Amino acid sequence: MPRAGLTPDRLVAAAADLADEAGLDHVTLSALARRFRVKDASLYTHVRNLKDLRTRMALLAGGEMIDRIAAAVEGREAGRDTLGAYAGAYRAYALEHPGRYAATQIPIDQDLVADSPAMRRTADITYGMLRAYGLEEPDLTDAVRLLRSTFHGYCALESTGAFGAPRDVQASWDRAIDALHVLLRNWPHGQRTTDA
After folding, report:
1. What's the CA gap between 165 and 179, in Å, rounded?
2. DSSP state of 23
3. 87-143 per-position pLDDT tens digit
4. pTM value?
5. pLDDT digits (tens, 9 = 90+) for 48-92
6. Are 32 and 88 in contact (CB under 8 A)?
7. How far is CA 149 from CA 10, 18, 53, 76, 153, in A?
8. How far is CA 138 from CA 28, 65, 66, 145, 196, in A?
9. Cis link prior to 138 (omega < 30° from 0)?
10. Of 7, 19, 110, 153, which sits 20 to 30 A from 104 (CA to CA)?
11. Domains in the chain, start-ordered, CATH in brackets?
């Protein structure tokens, strides 16, 4: 019989907390079993395996992150104001919840992504923000990849203290967002994808 009160949601929430405390790599079924004072085998009633657990963590964290972003961009003027709010909420979540954020970077089966309301909401908000710059496919996907790469790279470096110059990190972040805004307003539409 499963331990009273032990549910998939409780397990995933505990795993997310453990990831924030100790790092995503330290989230194991054994570590969770110790946290709940149960045998490892009893967790398989609630999750199939470690990959299933981490996928659920990724979906949980993705939902939390987009909730924060949605609240930040609500009512903002399209353009630099929305981009800055979006980016700021992204960065705050990544720095405050490093383990959860790491979970959002793992590959997830595309069928699960398509079935996830949080992932659909993320796409709607992100693509909506970029459509306000006049972008259409395939430029939308290229712009999403650019923003994600920039935000992730900055947060990854900042979280490890890799920015050693005396320049204020927030000031550099603000300038990066300014530069992205200028780039998005002046996106090179219709450019060739290869050099001939």
Report:
1. 20
2. -
3. 999 999 999 999 999 999 999 888 887 888 988 999 999 999 999 999 999 999 999
4. 0.91
5. 999 999 999 999 999 999 999 999 999 999 999 999 999 999 999
6. no
7. 32, 26, 25, 23, 6
8. 39, 25, 23, 11, 20
9. yes
10. 7
11. 56-186 (1.10.357.10)
